[in-house]
Design goal:
- The complex is a heterodimer of chains A (229) and B (438).
- Chain A has 229 residues and is an alpha/beta fold.
- Chain A is built from 8 helices and 5 strands; from the N terminus they run H-E-H-E-E-H-E-H-E-H-H-H-H.
- In chain A, strand 3, helix 3 and strand 4 form a beta-alpha-beta unit.
- In chain B, strand 1 and strand 2 form a beta hairpin.
- Chain B starts with a helix and ends with a helix.
- Chain B has a 5-stranded parallel β-sheet, sandwiched between helices.
- Chain B is built from 22 helices and 8 strands.
- Classes of the chains: A alpha/beta (229), B alpha/beta (438).
- Chains A and B meet through helix 1, helix 2, strand 2, helix 3 and helix 4 of A and helix 2, helix 3, helix 8, helix 14 and helix 16 of B.
């Protein structure tokens, strides 16, 4: 019998606080949530390695702020930067979330645009949440004024999850996607395949797809079979 | 008509990639009225992007939940009132009362901590606030980033406003001057712009180094500056360096900026840094133990903003965990910052930096050579090691060619005296402190 062709649904996780598994990062989540209520810190600098959920948290901030009727803007910087005009006029937003700001370091026109946006937001008392892959001091910025300004806020470092937390997270995420992964299977995935979260989510999507196609539960032998194919 | 934009948002959130939705769709503010939905984008870039990539989907969704007759339009704007002090918004009669001065009430002279590094700047600023246009005009405050220049400027503004709440005063960053001028030129409203800035009693303009290379703005600012000074109105400027050193600034501006009183703000010394921390903490009703203040101050040597950032972190952490602020607690709260600092500043690194600065060899610093050209840098390096690292005095002595700890004590005392009496030593020390901490 031919395998059933599952519909090509991309799993779109809700980038909300409720959908974020904090592990040992409870304090960070609390500070960010407080900030989204229009209270709390005026500047939060969130940093940590790849796959710790920085983008998820910044999007959760903009979502929560908008739910509270606080105009918010989220923008994720990529290595190919567009025209810095994207930052113009953003001081009308009560909260601006800029993701991956390490990409603007070394690009003088972006650094200048961001520096001026920073000042305009500060002068109006608006909130700014940024994320980067390193602390402010290590950002290779050309403008020293920008570096000191970024160090002025509340700097928070996201901690990586422990393996135990990752297993809990795999089961949690799988359930959100509509299938079950028992903890033992989660442990197996961690010890045999990738351990960083983006790779794990790609793996889960692949397993989900294969399981639907074969109409089989995700047992360890079946997983081995899928991943060897 | 029942508002439908929120319903559309839920649908669009499912149909559009998550980060695209967060960036382009969620920030749009909707105004629904009489069969029309006006979507407001924060700027031209967002508007163009939405128009090109998402508008048809938005229109389709709106029609699905509303009716075919609903008209959708996209504009730049914000639902909340735009509180920018644009010249066109103010009629001249209302100008005095309505001008938004952008003075931050949180920055006052009372909460500015004075030390040797900034006492002259504070005294001059207070003079200016008491004798507007008469004491020092212009007053130019210069120094590296994050040392309190902006605080001083706002403090002047607040002191003036305290005495005269309707004072015609404005604080702005130089970039805003440039931005407003460009906007005025585009809208053919340059005379309104000129009138706006040339009629203030006190103009506080921050970071004038950003005028560099902008000739048209320099020209306009030159005339604004002259008009204000001729009328004996006060101008206060800040700059990250002495204006003569700014590349791309016209000579006539450089010389005019130096007409009044240029005062420098230097990096604060250890005691002043600790005092700043205690004062800042007390503003949030936290009593910071002195030993903790010194612990943080020692690790963050030259920058007040970074100092504030570290304190913010300690307080936030203490509030979250409910723990008392002790040295142990502070070490934990700032562990990443401290380990980074320790990696960046150690005795080897200090010796290398000092040797390079004075163009001598590291081996000279460790040698028995007693020539002043060697002993002075050696003493400075020892004093820096005491200020910037947590090594004990015997350890520092040991790292300088096996010297005794009393030699280190003498070196530190000598440098402390010379920093008060000898400008060259004071400058060298400040420069090295800055190099090592950035």
């Amino acid at each position: 019998m031919a395998a059933q062709l599952p519909l090509q649904f991309e799993f779109k996780g809700d980038q909300s606080f409720a959908d974020y598994f904090a592990g040992s990062n409870h304090e960070i989540v609390a500070h960010l949530q407080h900030c989204c209520t229009g209270d709390g810190e005026q500047l939060i600098y969130l940093w940590g390695g790849r796959g710790l959920g920085k983008s998820h948290l910044l999007q959760a901030c903009s979502q929560k702020a908008m739910q509270q009727n606080i105009p918010a803007f989220y923008y994720s910087l990529q290595p190919n930067l567009p025209d810095p005009a994207v930052l113009e006029g953003l001081e009308t937003q009560e909260m601006v979330c800029l993701d991956n700001i390490e990409h603007l370091a070394g690009n003088l026109s972006w650094e200048n645009a961001f520096f001026h946006l920073f000042n305009r937001l500060r002068d109006r008392g608006q909130r700014l949440i940024v994320s980067a892959n390193c602390p402010p001091r290590q950002l290779p910025l050309t403008l020293p004024d920008l570096k000191t300004r970024l160090a002025w806020g509340l700097t928070l470092q996201l901690q990586a999850l422990t393996d135990q937390e990752r297993i809990v997270l795999i089961t949690f995420k799988a359930r959100r996607m509509g299938f079950e992964i028992p903890p033992r299977t989660g442990q197996f995935l961690l010890t045999h395949y990738a351990r960083d979260l983006p790779s794990l989510w790609a793996l889960l999507a692949r397993l989900d797809h294969a399981s639907l196609a074969a109409k089989r539960k995700l047992t360890i032998p079946f997983i081995k079979q899928i991943l060897q194919a | 008509m029942k508002p439908i934009w929120n319903t559309c948002l839920s649908k669009l959130e499912n149909d559009i990639a998550t980060s695209d939705f967060s960036t382009w769709i969620r920030p749009l503010q909707a105004i629904e009225d009489n069969g029309q939905i006006k979507l407001l984008a924060p700027n031209r870039f967002v508007l163009d992007w939405v128009k090109e990539h998402h508008l048809s989907k938005i229109e389709e969704t709106i029609r699905q939940f509303g009716s075919d007759k609903i008209q959708v339009s996209l504009e730049i704007g914000s639902r909340k009132s735009d509180a920018v002090a644009t010249p066109k918004k103010l009629k001249s009669a209302e100008r005095k009362q309505n001008r938004l001065n952008f003075i931050n009430p949180a920055f006052t002279f009372e909460n500015f901590v004075v030390g040797k590094s900034n006492q002259l700047a504070k005294a001059a600023s207070m003079q200016v606030s008491e004798n507007i246009g008469k004491a020092y005009n212009p007053l130019l405050i210069y120094g590296a980033s994050g040392l309190g220049k902006t605080h001083m400027m706002h403090a002047i503004g607040n002191a003036i406003l305290q005495k005269n709440p309707s004072a015609n005063i404005i604080y702005l960053h130089s970039e805003k001057f440039v931005h407003d001028m460009v906007k005025a030129l585009q809208k053919n409203a340059i005379n309104t712009f000129k009138d706006y800035y040339r009629t203030v009693d006190t103009l506080l303009i921050d970071d004038i180094q950003f005028f560099a290379g902008k000739e048209r703005s320099q020209e306009e600012f030159f005339h604004t500056f002259n008009t204000l000074l001729e009328k004996k109105h006060q101008v206060v400027l800040t700059c990250d360096k002495y204006p003569k050193e700014i590349v791309g600034l016209e000579e006539r501006l450089k010389s005019r900026f130096g007409w009044g009183l240029p005062v420098a703000i230097e990096p604060p010394d250890l005691e002043t840094r600790a005092a700043i921390l205690i004062k800042k903490a007390s503003q949030t009703e936290i009593e910071l133990p002195q030993e903790v203040a010194f612990f943080i101050a020692k690790r963050i040597p030259s920058n007040v903003r970074e100092l504030e950032g570290a304190l913010r972190r300690v307080i936030a952490n203490a509030e979250f965990t409910g723990r008392a602020i002790t040295i142990e607690f502070t070490k934990e709260a700032l562990h990443d910052l401290i380990s980074l600092q320790d990696r960046m500043v150690n005795i080897d690194n200090i010796q290398k930096t000092v040797a390079e600065y004075f163009k001598i060899r590291v081996s000279d610093l460790l040698s028995k050579n007693r020539k002043q050209s060697i002993t002075r840098p050696r003493q400075i390096a020892m004093a820096l090691a005491r200020e910037l690292t947590s090594h004990s005095l015997p350890e520092i002595g040991d790292n300088f060619g096996g010297r005794d700890h009393t030699t280190v004590i003498n070196a530190c005392k000598r440098i402390q005296e010379l920093r008060s009496s000898n400008v060259k030593v004071s400058e060298d020390y400040s420069n090295l402190l800055r190099i090592l901490s950035n």
